[in-house]
């Protein structure tokens, strides 16, 4: 049963008045002047929050916080902005977010022609030498009605190698110069888990899907230490400015972990980072078990595995072929035995497994593998909190398995509102039930966490929150095929990015709600997510981001 807000604030007021005889030490920071939502079911709303030594020292009525204001206390008037527990992006690619800032960004191109005019402008402005790399195009809604192809790029860059990755990160288009430099031609066999697309004339289109992208590795430049640090710094800055206090960083190169830890030691990571490392380099992690910097700012406790590809590029593995490509059922990306062996090592060493799975068969196969490994050690399995990343298309019969197996569904609301423009064509109507099934998963008892998959998506918390509660695109469009009944309530959506995100990284005692004693990670937005008209939500912006009681971003 829920208490009314009035009854609740009366209780809070009563509880918050400090006994006059025992004055508390002053707070480092006090915040008030806007609605405060705690995501803590025991006290969902408050008037004021006080912070001391990086932790929440007080939550309650304004009068109680006022008593904690000393001469050195920073008093933050929210001026109507809404305050929440620190928002965490539970699935993002941090270094790549930085790369997006530092290279050609094709995000939001409305046509192949526009993407190519951006490339032309980039070449003219930067006059880059050697390989040109860009990312972020996606053909959804393009008037050309097709993927970007080699000829498009050749027309702008006939001699210089160019690689333009699709927004989903699962495909790219290379121009003729890049293909030639990498010795890829019509006779090149596609590697396992990859596709080299050809046109009706049998010629290369320039599009390489999933593992076939690796064929370009010989001509790609591996970023060095300084470049990586620069990219991480750029990514962290973007995240703080969007209002994120934390990120679950996916597909992290194990070599980047010590780099991030060194950055933390120098005070250069104003973002809470939880790493899921690529399995290829995970041996040291299996040997050491979970690792974290002294204050836990950088925690590394998960590995990332890939079951299948993405829906847009028809790499997601389906039980039945694609409705719009009857000879294709998707691509398994990793050898199942290699995955099983990694999972067994992870379970023994207390390492969380996060597996990318998108198609219904991809998800079912992942659950099968998890269950097989869990049977070998039921005690460890109960505290394993393994995750499936994306969990996009699920057979309705498989939905209860998440809760039964204790598997967390790590989902990206913005994927749904983008993908629904093409998902009905890929899947036909029957498989849309069980697609992006946030509400069904929650109702089944599963833990669902929310992320953006940036730079696949923009990576803005307000877009993710809006997508979760509206389940409409940013223009307000949806239809019955989008299954509006799977939209979330605002309370549910808030937990996706706060309390549940903390649970998914084993930190619910320290993070995820505004509760006395927890770390003071806080996000304030210009729009009240819990009451604003839906269309207003994505128009809002972050105004204040606080990590461990330190202001890491403030709206200028
Ligand atoms: Zn991802």
Structure description:
The chain is of the alpha/beta class. It has 19 helices and 23 strands. Helix 10 crosses helix 11. Residues 10-15 have low confidence and may be disordered.
Which features characterize this protein?
single chain, 556 residues, globular, six-stranded mixed β-sheet, binds zinc ion
Helix share bin: 25-40%
Low-confidence stretches: 10-15
Class derived from helix and strand content: alpha/beta
Distance N terminus to C terminus? 42 Å
State Rg.
24 Å
Bound molecules: zinc ion
Instruction: Please tell me what the overall shape is.
Output: globular
Residues in β-strands, percent:
15-25%
Largest beta-sheet details? 9 strands, mixed
By DSSP (H or I, 4+ residues per run), the number of helices equals 19
The overall average pLDDT, rounded, is 94
Number of strands: 23
């Amino acid at each position: 049963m829920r208490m009314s807000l009035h009854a609740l604030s009366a209780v809070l007021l009563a509880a918050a008045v400090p006994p006059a005889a025992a004055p508390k030490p002053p707070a480092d920071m006090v915040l008030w002047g806007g609605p405060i939502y705690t995501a803590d079911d025991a006290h969902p709303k408050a008037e004021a929050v006080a912070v001391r030594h990086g932790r929440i020292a007080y939550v309650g009525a304004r009068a109680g916080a006022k008593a904690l204001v000393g001469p050195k206390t920073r008093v933050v008037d929210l001026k109507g902005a809404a305050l929440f527990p620190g928002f965490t992006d539970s699935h993002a690619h941090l270094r790549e977010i930085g790369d997006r800032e530092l290279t050609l960004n094709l995000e939001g191109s409305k046509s192949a022609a526009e993407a190519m005019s951006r490339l032309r402008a980039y070449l003219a402005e930067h006059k880059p030498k050697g390989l040109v790399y860009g990312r972020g195009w996606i053909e959804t809604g393009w008037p050309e009605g097709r993927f970007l192809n080699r000829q498009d790029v050749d027309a702008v860059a006939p001699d210089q190698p160019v690689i333009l990755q699709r927004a989903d990160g699962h495909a790219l288009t290379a121009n003729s110069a890049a293909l030639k430099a990498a010795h890829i031609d019509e006779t090149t066999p596609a590697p396992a888990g990859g596709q080299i697309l050809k046109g009706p004339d049998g010629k290369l289109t320039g599009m390489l899907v999933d593992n076939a992208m690796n064929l370009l590795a010989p001509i790609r430049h591996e970023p060095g230490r300084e470049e990586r640090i620069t990219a991480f710094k750029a990514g962290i800055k973007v995240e703080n400015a969007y209002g994120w206090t934390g990120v679950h960083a996916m597909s992290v190169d194990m070599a980047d972990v010590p780099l991030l830890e060194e950055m933390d030691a120098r005070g250069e990571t104003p973002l809470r980072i939880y790493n899921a490392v690529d399995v290829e380099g995970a041996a040291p992690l299996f040997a050491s078990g979970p690792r974290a910097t002294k204050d836990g700012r950088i925690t590394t406790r998960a590995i990332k595995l890939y079951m299948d590809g993405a829906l847009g590029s028809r790499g997601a593995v389906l039980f039945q072929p694609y409705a719009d490509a009857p000879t294709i059922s998707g691509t398994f990306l990793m050898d199942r035995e290699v995955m099983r062996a990694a999972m067994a090592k992870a379970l023994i060493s207390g390492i969380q497994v996060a597996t990318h799975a998108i198609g219904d068969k991809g998800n079912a196969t992942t659950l099968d593998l998890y269950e097989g490994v869990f049977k070998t050690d039921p005690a460890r399995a109960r505290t394993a909190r393994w995750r499936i990343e994306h969990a996009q298309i699920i057979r309705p019969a498989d939905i209860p398995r998440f809760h039964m197996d204790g598997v967390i569904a790590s989902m990206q609301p913005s994927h749904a509102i983008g993908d629904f423009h093409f998902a009905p064509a890929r899947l036909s109507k029957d498989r849309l039930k069980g697609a992006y099934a946030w509400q069904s998963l929650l109702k089944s008892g599963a833990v669902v966490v929310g992320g953006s998959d940036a730079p696949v998506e923009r990576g803005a918390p307000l877009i993710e929150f809006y997508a979760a509660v509206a389940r409409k695109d940013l223009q307000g469009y949806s239809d019955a095929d989008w299954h509006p009944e799977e939209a979330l309530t605002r309370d549910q959506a808030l937990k996706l990015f706060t309390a549940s995100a903390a649970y998914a990284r084993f930190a619910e005692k320290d993070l995820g709600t505004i509760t006395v004693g927890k770390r003071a990670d806080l996000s304030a937005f210009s729009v009240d997510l819990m009451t604003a008209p839906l269309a207003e939500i994505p128009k809002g912006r972050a105004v204040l981001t606080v990590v461990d009681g330190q202001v890491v971003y403030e709206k200028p």
